[in-house]
Amino acid sequence: MKTVDYLIVGVGSAGGVLLQRLARAGFSVVGLEAGPFWNTEKDWVSDEAGSHKLYWEDPRVTGGSDPLAFGANNSGKGVGGGSVHWAAFTPRFHPSDFEVYTRDGLGADWPISYHDIKPYYEQLEREMPVAGPAYFPWGHPHGYSYGPHPMGGVGNALIKGCTAMGIPVSIGGPVAILSGSFGDRPHCIYRGFCIQGCKVGAKASTLITHVPDALASGAEIRPHCMASRIELGSGGRVTGVHYFDRDGESHFQPAKAVIVAAYAIETPRLLLNSGLANSSGTLGRYLMAQAGNVIMGRFDQLVRMYKAPPAHALTEEFYETNPKNDFVRGFAIQTVGPLPVAFAKQMQSAKKAWGWGLRREMMDYNHWAAFGALGEILPWADNRVTLSDETDQFGLRVAHVSFNLHDNDKKLIKAATQKTMEVMHAAGATEVVQEARYAHLVGAARMGEDPATSVVDKFGRTHDVDNLFVCDGSILPTQGSANPGLTIQALAARTADYLICQGERIFSSARRDMSEPRMRRDLAPPATWGKGVPRLT
Amino acid sequence: MSEYNNSDPSLRPVNPETGEPFPPTDQPGYYPGFRTLSQSPYWDAATRNVVTLRVTDPPERRFFTAYEWKFWETVFSHLIPQTDRTPERQIPLIPPLDARLYANRTDGYRYETMPQDREAYKIGIEAINNESAARFGGEFLDLGHWQQEKVLQAIHDGRPEASPEIWKSMSVSRFWELIMHDAMKAYYGHPWAWDEVGFGGPAYPRAYMRLENGEPEPWEVREKRHEWRAPDLSVSDEVEPLHHLHTEATQRAHISPLRKKP
Fold first, then answer.
1. Which residues of A touch B78 (CB under 8 A)?
2. What ipTM did this prediction achieve?
3. Interface of B with A in 97-116 (CB under 8 A)
4. CATH class of A4-523
5. Neighbours of A226 (CB within 10 A)
6. In which domain, by residue range, is B247 found?
7. Is B262's pLDDT higher than 70?
8. C-beta atoms of A60 and B236 within 8 A
């Protein structure tokens, strides 16, 4: 096979953006994707049970004192990856997120600041684009140039509860769903099946925001191709990736540089299976999920929470460390709109419902509203991805994940849950219950300045191998209580600018130029930049 | 013995006004006459195909033996009882499970305290039969309807008496989660259950237009509530809110308080 400039493993949130930027800049680039290239009209359905193939269903083993659920909860498969089934909440991280250790003495600092990523937030908010209010008051205050969405029943409950308690609330976004048509993409139709894949094309996924321009610019995507091992050459540089195609045939694609963008479980798994990038011993460690407790309130009046996107209103009033608390960092409160199967699972967890009790609770489905308490869990060394002795259909060792809550996490989750329950009561709910769970995944190949305590540098280059990069959620050192999707894509655009500015030097030189790249707005997908006038930036 | 058996009125929900069991109905719930399938001409073809096939062509048995199929069908008839439904409108719960296990398809992860799903559904039969023997001196399928319910209640509560060696290799609470999830996916993934709970169902490409105040679309119907209570001898109508437990592991590992013995 012909040697390509860049081989990207995983065409998801980060991989899609990287592929688009690098191809538009003129590099030869191939993306390996373990799942299919979707035909959204034929492959996707408005149906919970029929959407399982959007999720990573290959085997993983989960354990520790607080084991995480994967699959539909947080792991995508197929071109677009997790951005196909995300709810598309796109808040930015706060400036404080980049210096958690300095401020609070726990967690970690990032090797970059909010200032470094801010232009990429602004950029990606227009590329997706993000709908939201003209003024968003938390973190670094900013506004959205695409209009907010109308409220559904859950959003109205959040407004009512927050207002009664004097808590500011952001309504109609920020969410990467179109409130008005955009180019040839239609606006949202409020059908509520966001996390089953948006057939409408209103919700942003890299499948529709970046992959089309990547292909038009000459990138190649190989679907149904599962990377098995990254090959290390004699010169201490990687030479390409071994992979299995859909028939189980093994191939080797040579490349001048490799970028792993397979998310927080499969990225460390591939690197561990390749025996690479772990001189620090931190590869696989510092895995994070966010607390995602779902607080459900029953109202006398009807809510019908299946209408409107699950994600359409939130408050970040409790995001920052509050010295009055017995824990550091904080949480957000967001709308969620579970469909019947998801809601049944929540009733089973929250009320131990089964049998006639479950039937009875479910008959009241339309009377319930659900809020998510999205809580920051700190990075801990013992929360980690290792290799299990079990193997998958390709004979590759599968990931074993161990996850354990620590004292700060437990106190934060308790406070987040209680506050969210208060808001639900204040909204007028006559009964409030709660299901404990987790949302999102980041960490496990974290970035940092010190090669002894991190896996990659601030541009995603592995400390150990000069032409091996990681670019996805796994490089995050901390996670705040913001949904990570926007930050993952913003980091991908920044890494792409770095690679483009470095040019051919990436392919041959061992010199690491750590200066900030020039921003290449001209390489954004056509007609996504320069539109709209944000009121605050 | 008991699955899908609604000829025995004592197994059916009761009208509190009269004290009499309700007759079986085409459509339980509070949305009389609401049929999501009536809207299928307005759905996209892929969705219509998947949902319609679920109703008309449930997959045939390929993984379970005839006995295993019958066993789990009986268990699931307690996890989600349907004696209030007419036989032809009862939702088949085992076909999608059998198809899933035949394809060896999982949710994408396995708890380290659990065997593989296929194995769990084999061992589970042994555990439930042992529990039946310990409590009522017979195999599960040979017990009376309410004895069967009590056996399952013991597992729901996290308090099985028999098979300590099985439960050492398979978490009671994760096993319960597994079988409940399969039952709920089958029931609440079915359009007849959507009618029951008043869920509007697929709405692409037509859209939902009335987002606020719980207003129905023109083709949805207004709620019409009525009182009902579970069959008098049933123990599955109780719920136990766990919101004082804040983490997933503690909620899941919760063991219900000791119940008074019957």
1. 355
2. 0.97
3. 105-113
4. alpha beta
5. 22
6. 9-253
7. no
8. no
